[in-house]
Design goal:
CATH superfamily: Electron Transport, Fmn-binding Protein, Chain A
Number of helices: 4
Number of strands: 12
Oligomer: single chain
CATH topology: Pnp Oxidase, Chain A
Radius of gyration: 16 Å
Distance between the termini: 44 Å
CATH architecture: Roll
CATH class: Mainly Beta
Order of helices and strands: HEEEEEHEHHEEEEEE
Number of domains: 1
Shape: globular
Helix content: 10-25%
Strand order of the largest sheet: 3-2-6-9-10-5-4
Strand content: 35-45%
Length: 167
């Protein structure tokens, strides 16, 4: 018996993760989206993977431009995360209301993010409704703030650190 979409979503909501925004550029156009499917792939060379839904503008721009930045949001950026994700704000998505600069690859990098990875696409794999883009990391940057977290369809802050020695 196949797993229902609702059952799958319910279980995946239990996966707590950092909040990432993928930004892309093609020619003069820029775009940003909230991405929950992101991971580190390897170190030599530094490589990451993002999953982008195929029916959207971001996918079209990434296919054409072949550069992207993964921007990790800090704990004061829940409003930005909401506008790029759940609210689907067209001005935020087009970076008209979000300060950014151009990274080494030409991808837009959010000015006030926790940290970022600036990437070039080196491979892509199609799934049923998404494309998995593998990018080599050309540049990184960031600061010392605390990350914004996503869990149970909401944005959270770290409350307590549990050290490896149990204290």
């Amino acid at each position: 018996m196949p797993v229902s979409d609702d059952s799958f979503r319910q279980v995946m909501r239990q996966w707590a993760s950092g909040v990432t925004v993928v930004t892309v550029r093609h020619e003069a156009a820029v775009r940003a989206i909230l991405v929950t499917s992101f991971l580190s792939v390897g170190l030599d060379p530094p490589t990451v993977l993002v999953s982008i839904k195929r029916d959207g503008e971001t996918h079209r721009m990434l296919e054409a431009g072949r550069v992207f930045a993964v921007n990790f949001l800090h704990e004061e950026q829940a409003e930005l995360a909401n506008s790029l994700g759940y609210a689907n704000d067209p001005d935020a998505r087009a970076l008209r209301t979000v300060p950014f600069h151009t990274g080494a690859t030409g991808a837009p990098v959010l000015d006030d993010c926790l940290c970022y990875l600036d990437c070039r696409v080196i491979d892509a794999f199609e799934t049923r409704d998404h494309t998995l883009y593998v990018g080599v990391v050309d540049a990184v940057g960031g600061g010392e703030r605390r990350p914004l977290l996503h869990w149970e369809r909401g944005f959270r802050r770290l409350e307590k650190e549990i050290r490896s020695d149990g204290v």
